[in-house]
């Protein structure tokens, strides 16, 4: 038994509803369509999952709908269901040469019913060859009156200027996190799902990187667990960890505690996080700290203790992370971070000196707040982290050698 995927089930069907985060672009296309000001050559550009191909299909249906031209196609007539084969979708990634463009130009000779349009949707158009663009150029400049070309791309910079200048260009930006969260909540309510947390929706929205399709796909994966939709379960599906652990890495650096910081970094990797995501998520956390984009009271408590890490130091940390991201040697990166002058000059502070001395084992996912002192406790590496002892010893030895040479 199969079901319709959420990203297809809740795909917008017209320009009046459903285009979350792309309202201005949808409004411009809506007006151009209803006022008869739509060009024969249209370019839709933006991040993946932003609604480009969906928009192209709605335009194609709206132009030929029995009630059209309209921005709200009925979706039921022979034209909307494309029974008359007027809509042609072409994947430029696999049809990128001159021969394919010649085939398109050849098909233009066949006329359509009066008042109807033959629509060509070329997806990932930036993948076409230079020769193919040259072959398409004249057709875009003077297309037949009953033909509309809709070019979709995630990388408009790769398109020749001569192509862009001959199109009506509509841009799709990244969808804000809050709007994605709101839309996901609305969909869950429609699906009759109430066992979810706001934090889980935020993690999904942030991981989608501004794309609604990616957020719906991830949401559907998380629902397959048949458990509460909370942040912890979402992290497991994504294959990453709570960003609180990255804040604790900064706290270890703030206290010049190399042993703790290295052990925590290793623990993150042992949880299954790929090195490239380690660097990416660490950079994202630093960015949020600099911009003060802190969401929970626990996070704010940790950030309040980062008194030794000013913006300049955090930017230096970011530079090292970006340079080391490709190689992915976590241990070497940690050593480099502790060679930053503003961190190296700090008096080494044991974690016990800045947190409560209560001895209890805690999960690295959940920081503990001491209600009496309102101080976030950062667990010692012995209680929270159990990396391989030999690896730690070797890393500490390398760190001492590196420090001596410096």
Describe it.
This protein has three domains: 167 residues, Rossmann fold, CATH 3.40.50; 62 residues, Helicase, Ruva Protein, domain 3; 162 residues, no CATH class. It is built from 19 helices and seven strands. A hairpin with a 4-residue loop joins strand 6 and strand 7. Helix 13 packs antiparallel against helix 15. The longest helix is centred in the C-terminal third of the chain and has 17 residues. The N and C termini lie far apart (64 Å).
* Proportion of helical residues: 40-55%
Q: How large, in whole angstroms, is the Cα Rg?
A: 27 Å
| Alpha carbon gap, first and last residue | 64 Å
Any idea what the CATH superfamily of the largest domain is called? Answer: P-loop containing nucleotide triphosphate hydrolases
What structural category do the secondary elements indicate? alpha/beta
Task: Estimate the strand proportion.
Answer: 5-15%
- Put simply, the count of helices is 19
**Largest sheet entry:** 5 strands, parallel
Q: Uncertain spans, ≥5 residues at pLDDT below 50?
A: 350-389
What is the total number of structural domains? 3
CATH class of the largest domain: Alpha Beta
Please name the CATH architecture of the largest domain: 3-Layer(aba) Sandwich
Short description:
This protein has 406 residues and is an alpha/beta fold. Helix content is 48%, strand content 9%.
Give the helix/strand layout.
Layout: H1 6-9, H2 23-34, E1 41-46, H3 52-64, E2 87-91, H4 98-107, E3 118-123, H5 130-141, E4 147-153, H6 161-164, E5 168-172, H7 177-190, H8 198-207, H9 212-223, H10 231-238, H11 244-254, H12 258-270, H13 275-291, H14 297-303, H15 311-324, H16 330-337, H17 341-344, E6 368-370, E7 375-377, H18 381-384, H19 389-405
Parallel strand pairs: 1-4, 1-5, 2-3, 3-4
Antiparallel strand pairs: 6-7
Helix pairs in contact: 4-5, 7-8, 8-9, 8-10, 9-10, 11-12, 11-14, 12-16, 13-15, 15-16
